[in-house]
What does this fold into?
Amino acid sequence: MRAGRVIPAGSSRPSRLDPLALPVQFRASDATADDRVRLVALHRERVVLRRSVAGMRMAVSLPVSNYLGVVLRMIAPAPDSEGTVTIMLEHRDAALAVPLFTAPDSADAIAEWQLWGRVLGLPLLVADADGTLHDPFPSLGALRIERPQGRRRRSSALKRRRPRILTRRQPAHLPPAPPVHRDEREIIARS
It folds into this structure.
């Protein structure tokens, strides 16, 4: 998607905003707005929401740091509709939440979710069925805790048995009995 392009609301195809092409403007549904549509301008540091309520036009500008994080929501299928996967920029006030990605299946949802979190610098969160948000990865503050991984080496038969530096060195070949020079005069060059 190109920067500044406006996406129509109510599109039946999965909507995808490109996080690497910010700033971007798009339309999102808003149940409290006059036309049930609001215009969202998303930048790396700021979100601007424009809508009209009871004939009064308003614009709300918020820094991205005010948002809780990038949330992955799984919406269960209803009898009249299919289930969807949605990625939202979540705020404490639900009216300020911004949809970033919606798809009928979760094929690309995890990659999109992680990319949005990395681009915006916000934590990744998962919404439970009851709406509570939690961090899916164990962490200490902003530091994510994971199992330590071994050093990556090129594939070879010896990679698990020998350190890599030893695979590059050639061992020295010494003669069985090195020559010993005894009772010889030492020649020293002096100028």
